[in-house]
User: Which sequence fits this backbone?
């Protein structure tokens, strides 16, 4: 009976349990950042019973003990959790990364991924912040297909070069347009007065003021459907940066700190002192054996050759010493590696930031303060930034919303001297990296016997620039970005938004060299340099637009945007440069005692634009979009101020069709197509338009004070925008319940009306400047593939992989009849029918076994010896006509043979392009319980790098110049040697020629980022009222796989003046000349959210 | 507070913002950062003066010594190279592609950058002149200074334009007298400034070219002041190196002389008389040019070693000196190194001075004085030989051997090149008048000027008569001797080539007035070139053919 009673009781009580509707409470947080999630729908399965989480992510719902709760929210994977009689339930929701309803930011609005017809890549702020570099641009590499980012050098503070779907211009700026929270901002690297930075330092990058920790997401608008709404500035793509916003709820705090050490990713090996001395002996002996003479002298050999010729090295440093003394110094200092003086022992990265966000239902805020400091891999090179932000959103009434985004930042960049010889001759270099690898021989001591610096001031010593009383160079940048908006709901479906933004930059650039270290020292002609440059740039921008959203029966959905935009930039700059300074160091004053030059100038531009966009979709299945923008700009001539930029696009969500709705494996398929026009109105370093006005000429006449005025530029009132027509065909897909997702794009970018200029005709009487015209055309076409897969999706272990690969091909299709030599000069030229970055060089064929000299190919010639041009009018090489060149640069074979005419035997190199075709990245994320390991590989394939540094370090010259170890290997030493490297000869006149000998394959793959993080167990953290605490280890640029023998294959073309408009990054994308390599960083840090 | 954001206020906000946006429209004309627009430039007389100033500056501006420069000084040297003859032959100047070499061989190709530079150095001053004239005629400045400077500015503009057209005509067009009225045989004669880079005119005929040059110089002479007047020109200090009426007349005389017809010779003589008086054998002032008395300097080096800065009025032989830079006073550095360096064929040797002299071998031994010359009849007393041509003792001479000192005194601290150049001097007018008188049969008058020139140059000189053996007692002998005297006096100043064409043209129309040796074809290797050979003309630069559609390929000089 007792048993029976007990059973009845149990049954009853279990029924009671089954039927009971107890309160279940709980909290929903994000699995990614462990922050509470408000607005998440919590429902009891198969009932209408449901609630929504409050601002703290908490919920309370009546549910039976055996009920199942369903959690769902936009952007998150739905989750079903059985109550199992629990009273409290903690839930972590996972981001739904493949969700079609992911919201992406587009121009003047947002759109769901599902109804988007344009090509927009989204990169999350956290992925950018995860990479240990202060410049967020560098962190974008490999994260989005078709976006190619290369650092210009490994120097802290150096700008990055960004190309979206290839280079779309020759003379104009090829960088994308940047929009921060709806406001176009200035992004041009500022070489003040065309100055690329004193001492050859890179120009200041205003985008380095933006802190990655403030970024919520970065959207890259790649095709015309997405970017044409930005019209005349969108041809190179648009990068939309959205900063973090506050959300209603309790105030959340976040703090992060990280620290890391920097070292160079690579060091090139040079001959040490011992090798150098014996190599020199060998070179002199080779010269003697070969009987090389010049003008009847044994010209290869220095006059003091009987003494070994060493005094040549010291001639500039200590001319008074005799051979024995010189040799003593040389042999005593054989093991000095002067590169050690250039690289820091360990550079360091430090980053710390705090932020707070939250707010009420009516007012939300986000505020942050960040500090970043990078001590670069090079001495005296560091970058420091402090940045603060306040973002506010306020709902004033049911109709009116207001807000403001305010960001102030300050950066200080101490610049390292590049130090090439021409800069030194002008008094602008105290040595530096270039000098260290070139001129400071391993047999040179650091100090003279009396303790003074060796080689100062006649040559340069790398210890010089480490003393701030002798040298300093810095750029200070203040930037203040502000943006306020008001949004008014006129009707339920009609909203008006007005935004006014201001972008203010104040830059101060200071360069100082003590008289003691300029050529000739305190008695020289320069006697020190003090150079002070400043500019203040102010951009005012206003957007005013109406948004109309209407849905008819949930079938016909309209989204119309109509508005205008106004942008005005005012850039005032000035410099004063003085020489002949007093010898006493003057760090804090520019008081001028000697010669001074100064200038100030004002640059301005204005845009006024009207834009509209209509999106329509039928049940989200058939999607059409059209946009139209009309832009007016002061940057162009009066006859072509205005231009129209339309776009059309369509999309079809095929999987919404009945015939595919049952597919087991195909969970999503969307086909997209778009066409549109965009423009490039950023003429780069030189104003494209001209009023045909006068300037002050540089020739004084009459030896008197005067102001010679001359027309400095031809009138260009017909110049118009460079126009890019882009066609995009794409498919987005998801397989196996979107476990595998991806997209494929094929695009063609046809750019016409390229602004090119040649010198005005001689009889025009206009001296200097360029006669600009819209003359050329080029195209880029390519494929982009992005794939994401959740390889393992377990409870404890997860593995996600994302791959993106882009292939881009570039071809110049028209130069408007201009000769290639009128467009560019130097190692890279521009040819019709060939890609930008085509090299123009003599072809190196190898080593002549008999003489050890270099052998080159002649160009194709007819029987009479005249050059034969191909159908396009270009020369081509004839590898059967071999020219052996002696160390004097003469056709080998005697003393009277003529010098090689290098230009005559140069021809376009068609099989070794300067632009990479393949770029991309592979990222993996492995998570196991609290551990997450993520890796990012980036790669670049297909380009050939011209290494001018290798060229300078491949010969035994009369002056001091070290030799790279690679040229010592398998070199010619005696007749009959089948060597891969030519022999060394004492080489007084021929300092090496730019030839294909120094073209190297630039392919590389790089382990860009490796990050291991550990989230402290919730039990522990909650006791401390911390939502999330994680610690992490990072390694940046840990491994590089490449055959490139130089410093770094990640090259972006920093050599200036390759074309006539100073846009080397378009024309010469793969040249390097002793550019410092990227840094490798090992770091650790922690992040707290509470 | 809430009321503030109610509907009606928001409407106002929208209105204000919209107005703000549309207000921007008027700002589209933002001036380029580094340009003074025409509307600014023409507002000031001083600006117009600045434009003229830059025109002069271009004529004397130099590039670094490693490039082929093209100032009026270089133009003189290139003309010397083109005319190098006759009895001597040079070994090529080192650097086979040096401009001098190519000009000597008449093998300068249309894509040679030097051609563009030469053309630009003439047409930039022409553009300055045209701009000045255009503004004065259309939008004159309103300041009070304008009325005082107007004639002078216009006169200078006409002077510069006429001078530069004349230089261009001599390089790119045939000698007046050959194909004179052939369409397109002359040069481009733009009379308005090019603003968009296109010249807007086609090649004129030679007749039209000379008409324009003469017209410009006549207008210049009519408008220019006779002298620098501190009361009027004091505000424009560079004015003392700029053209006055005498300069315009002197250059006009040069033009008439180059035209090489009996009538133009007469006009040349009459024009010369307006500058140096009408009494051969003397130089006097004339009311026409303000009674300014030019003279031949006793110190024959003075016209060449004057910097032009310290005391230009003291050098009364110069009618016009072009002076460029303020740095020219920095000391007597050897600018002449650029034209005399004989040591091992320095590729920077631009002038190739050795070509210009009759010497037994192209390369005299180093450190050895050259003591004979077929050109000079008195190498001992003629200071033009001892002081201007050979001066073994000159400190700093390369290899102790200098072939010309004429430019050896020019000063330039950084060896950039010639920054100061006597464009025209009284001696040229005297010897020109002597030649015209000789040709016209006025032998006594010719001898007066001939002796005036020689008396100044030769120590202990005794006046020659028609019967002197060097002259031979005939008009023909006198003409031949005066022509040689002209070569001696104007050596290295760029006259030989033009004289050759002038004399040949004169003979062609008037019989054998000049000796056959002076008009003989030039020999270059195995080739010979007549005075009217197409090859002796420079080609138009390819940029003018491709960038200036008005020229057109058909207008290129034929081979």
Assistant:
């Amino acid at each position: 009976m007792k048993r029976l009673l007990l059973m009845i009781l149990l049954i009853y009580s279990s029924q009671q349990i089954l039927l009971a509707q107890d309160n279940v409470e709980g909290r929903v947080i994000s699995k990614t950042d462990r922050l509470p999630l408000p607005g998440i729908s919590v429902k009891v399965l198969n009932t209408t019973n449901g609630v929504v989480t409050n601002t703290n992510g908490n919920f309370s719902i009546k549910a039976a003990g055996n009920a199942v709760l369903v959690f769902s929210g936009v952007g998150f994977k739905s989750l079903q959790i059985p109550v199992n009689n629990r009273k409290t339930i903690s839930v972590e929701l996972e981001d739904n990364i493949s969700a079609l309803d992911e919201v992406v930011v587009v121009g003047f609005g947002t759109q769901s991924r599902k109804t988007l017809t344009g090509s927009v890549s989204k990169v999350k702020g956290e992925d950018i912040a995860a990479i240990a570099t202060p410049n967020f641009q560098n962190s974008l590499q490999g994260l989005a297909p078709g976006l190619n980012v290369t650092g210009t050098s490994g120097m802290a503070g150096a700008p990055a070069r960004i190309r979206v779907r290839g280079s779309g211009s020759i003379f104009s700026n090829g960088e994308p347009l940047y929009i921060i929270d709806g406001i176009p901002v200035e992004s041009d690297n500022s070489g003040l007065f065309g100055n690329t930075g004193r001492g050859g330092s890179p120009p200041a990058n205003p985008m380095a003021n933006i802190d990655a920790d403030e970024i919520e997401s970065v959207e890259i608008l790649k095709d015309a459907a997405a970017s044409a709404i930005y019209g005349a500035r969108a041809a190179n793509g648009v990068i939309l940066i959205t900063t973090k916003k506050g959300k209603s709820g309790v105030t959340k705090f976040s703090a992060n700190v990280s620290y890391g050490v920097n070292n160079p990713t690579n060091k090139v090996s040079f001959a040490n002192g011992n090798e150098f001395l014996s190599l020199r002996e060998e070179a002199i002996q080779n010269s003697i054996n070969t009987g090389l003479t010049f003008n009847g002298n044994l010209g290869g050999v220095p006059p003091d050759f009987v003494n070994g010729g060493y005094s040549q090295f010291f001639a500039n440093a200590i001319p008074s010493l005799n051979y024995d003394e010189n040799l003593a110094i040389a042999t005593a200092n054989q093991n000095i590696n002067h590169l050690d003086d250039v690289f820091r022992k360990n550079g360091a990265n430090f980053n710390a930031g705090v932020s707070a966000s939250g707010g009420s239902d009516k007012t939300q805020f986000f505020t942050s303060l960040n500090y970043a400091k990078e001590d670069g891999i090079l001495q005296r090179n560091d970058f420091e930034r402090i940045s603060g932000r306040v973002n506010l959103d306020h709902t004033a009434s049911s109709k009116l919303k207001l807000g403001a985004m305010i960001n102030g930042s300050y950066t200080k960049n101490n610049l390292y001297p590049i130090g090439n010889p021409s800069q030194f001759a002008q008094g602008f270099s105290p040595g530096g990296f270039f000098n260290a690898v070139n001129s400071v021989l391993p047999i040179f001591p650091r100090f003279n016997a009396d303790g003074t610096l060796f080689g100062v001031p006649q040559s340069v010593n790398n210890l010089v620039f480490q003393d701030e009383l002798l040298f300093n160079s810095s750029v200070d940048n203040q930037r203040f970005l502000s943006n306020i908006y008001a949004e008014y709901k006129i009707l339920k479906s009609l909203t008006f938004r007005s935004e006014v933004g201001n972008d203010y930059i104040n830059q101060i650039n200071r360069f100082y060299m003590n008289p003691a270290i300029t050529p000739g020292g305190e008695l020289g002609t320069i006697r020190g340099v003090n150079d002070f440059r400043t500019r203040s740039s102010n951009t005012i921008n206003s957007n005013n637009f109406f948004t109309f959203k209407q849905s008819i029966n949930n079938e016909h959905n309209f989204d119309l945007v109509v508005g205008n935009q106004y942008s005005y930039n005012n850039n005032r700059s000035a410099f004063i440069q003085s020489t002949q300074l007093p010898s006493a160091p003057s760090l804090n004053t520019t008081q001028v005692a000697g010669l001074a030059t100064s200038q100030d100038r004002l640059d301005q531009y204005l845009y006024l634009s009207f834009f509209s966009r209509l999106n329509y979709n039928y049940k989200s299945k058939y999607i059409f979009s059209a946009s139209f923008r009309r832009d007016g700009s002061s940057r162009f001539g009066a006859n072509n101020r205005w231009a129209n930029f339309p776009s059309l696009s369509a999309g079809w969500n095929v999987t919404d069709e009945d015939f595919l709705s049952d597919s087991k494996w195909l969970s999503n398929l969307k086909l997209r197509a778009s066409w549109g026009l965009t423009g490039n109105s950023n003429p780069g370093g030189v104003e494209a338009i001209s009023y045909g006005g006068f300037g002050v000429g540089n020739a004084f006449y009459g030896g008197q004070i005067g102001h010679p005025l001359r027309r400095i530029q031809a009138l260009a009132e017909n110049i118009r925008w460079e126009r890019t027509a882009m066609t995009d065909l794409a498919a987005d897909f998801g397989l196996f319940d979107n476990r595998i997702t991806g997209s494929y794009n094929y695009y063609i970018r046809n750019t016409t009306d390229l602004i090119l200029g040649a010198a005005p005709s001689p009889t025009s009487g206009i001296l200097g400047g360029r006669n600009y015209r819209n003359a050329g055309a080029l195209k880029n076409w390519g494929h982009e593939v992005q794939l994401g897969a959740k390889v393992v999706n377990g409870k404890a272990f997860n593995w996600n992989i994302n791959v993106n690969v882009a292939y881009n091909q570039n071809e110049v299709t028209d130069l408007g009849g201009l000769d290639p030599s009128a467009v560019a000069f130097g190692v890279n030229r521009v040819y019709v029918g060939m890609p930008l970055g085509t090299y123009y060089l003599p072809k190196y064929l190898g080593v002549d076994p008999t003489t050890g000299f270099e052998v080159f190919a002649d160009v194709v010639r007819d029987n009479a010896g005249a050059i034969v041009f191909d159908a396009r009018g270009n020369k081509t090489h004839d590898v059967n006509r071999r020219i052996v060149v002696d160390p004097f640069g003469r056709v080998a074979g005697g003393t009277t043979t003529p010098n090689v005419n290098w230009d005559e035997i140069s021809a376009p190199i068609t099989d070794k392009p300067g632009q990479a075709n393949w770029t991309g990245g592979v990222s993996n994320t492995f998570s196991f319980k609290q551990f997450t390991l993520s890796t990012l590989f980036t790669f670049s394939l297909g380009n050939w790098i011209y290494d001018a540094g290798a060229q300078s370090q491949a010969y035994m010259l009369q002056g001091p110049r070290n030799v790279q170890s690679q040229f010592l290997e398998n070199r010619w030493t005696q007749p009959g040697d089948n060597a891969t490297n030519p022999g060394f000869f004492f080489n007084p006149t021929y300092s090496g020629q730019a030839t294909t000998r120094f073209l190297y394959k630039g392919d590389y793959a790089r382990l860009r980022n490796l990050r291991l993080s550990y989230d402290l167990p919730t039990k522990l953290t909650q006791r401390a009222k911390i939502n999330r605490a994680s610690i992490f280890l990072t390694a940046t640029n840990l491994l590089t796989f490449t055959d490139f023998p130089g410093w770094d294959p990640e090259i972006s073309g920093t050599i200036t003046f390759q074309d006539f408009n100073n846009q080397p990054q378009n024309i010469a994308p793969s040249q390097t000349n002793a550019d410092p390599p990227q840094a490798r960083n090992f770091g650790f840090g922690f992040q707290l959210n509470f | 507070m809430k009321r503030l954001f109610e509907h009606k206020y928001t409407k106002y906000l929208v209105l204000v913002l919209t107005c703000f946006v549309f207000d921007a429209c008027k700002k589209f004309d933002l001036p380029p950062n580094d340009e003074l627009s025409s509307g600014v430039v023409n507002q000031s007389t001083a600006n117009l003066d600045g434009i003229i100033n830059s025109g002069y500056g271009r004529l004397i501006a130099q590039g670094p010594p490693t490039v082929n420069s093209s100032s009026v000084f270089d133009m003189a040297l290139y003309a010397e190279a083109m005319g190098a003859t006759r009895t001597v032959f040079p070994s090529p100047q080192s650097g086979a592609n040096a401009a001098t070499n190519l000009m000597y061989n008449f093998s300068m190709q249309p894509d040679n950058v030097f051609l563009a530079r030469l053309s630009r150095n003439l047409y930039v001053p022409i553009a300055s002149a045209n701009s000045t004239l255009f503004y004065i005629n259309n939008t004159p400045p309103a300041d009070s200074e304008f009325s005082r400077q107007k004639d002078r500015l216009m006169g200078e503009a006409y002077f510069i334009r006429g001078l530069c057209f004349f230089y261009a005509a001599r390089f790119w067009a045939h000698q007046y007298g050959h194909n004179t009225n052939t369409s397109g045989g002359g040069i481009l004669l733009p009379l308005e400034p090019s603003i968009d880079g296109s010249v807007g005119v086609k090649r004129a005929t030679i007749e039209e070219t000379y008409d324009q040059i003469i017209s410009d110089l006549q207008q210049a002479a009519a408008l220019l002041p006779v002298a620098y007047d501190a009361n009027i020109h004091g505000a424009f200090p560079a004015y003392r190196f700029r053209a006055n009426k005498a300069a315009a007349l002197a250059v006009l005389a040069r033009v008439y002389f180059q035209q090489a017809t009996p009538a133009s010779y007469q006009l040349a003589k009459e024009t010369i008389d307006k500058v140096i008086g009408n009494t051969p054998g003397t130089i006097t002032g004339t009311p026409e040019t303000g009674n300014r008395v030019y003279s031949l300097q006793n110190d024959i080096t003075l016209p060449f070693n004057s910097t032009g800065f310290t005391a230009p009025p003291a050098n009364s032989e110069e009618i016009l000196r072009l002076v460029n830079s303020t740095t020219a006073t920095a000391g007597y550095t050897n600018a002449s190194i650029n034209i005399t360096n004989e040591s091992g064929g320095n590729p920077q040797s631009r002038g190739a001075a050795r070509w210009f002299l009759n010497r037994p071998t192209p390369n005299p031994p180093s450190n050895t004085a050259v003591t004979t010359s077929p050109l000079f009849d008195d190498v001992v007393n003629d200071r033009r030989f001892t002081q201007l041509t050979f001066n073994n003792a000159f400190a700093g001479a390369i290899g102790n051997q200098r072939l010309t000192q004429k430019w050896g005194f020019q000063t330039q601290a950084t060896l950039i090149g010639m920054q100061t150049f006597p464009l025209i001097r009284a001696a040229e007018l005297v010897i020109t008048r002597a030649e015209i008188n000789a040709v016209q049969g006025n032998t006594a008058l010719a001898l007066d000027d001939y002796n005036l020139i020689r008396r100044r140059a030769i120590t202990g000189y005794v006046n020659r008569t028609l019967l002197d053996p060097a002259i031979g007692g005939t008009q023909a002998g006198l003409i031949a001797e005066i022509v040689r005297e002209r070569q001696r006096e104007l050596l290295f100043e760029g006259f030989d080539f033009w004289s050759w064409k002038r004399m040949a043209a004169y003979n062609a129309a008037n019989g054998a007035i000049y000796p056959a040796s002076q008009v003989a074809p030039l020999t270059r290797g195995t080739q010979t070139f007549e005075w009217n050979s197409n090859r002796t003309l420079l080609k138009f630069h390819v940029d003018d053919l491709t960038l200036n559609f008005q020229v057109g390929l058909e207008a290129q000089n034929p081979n």
Observations:
- The radius of gyration of chain B is 27 Å.
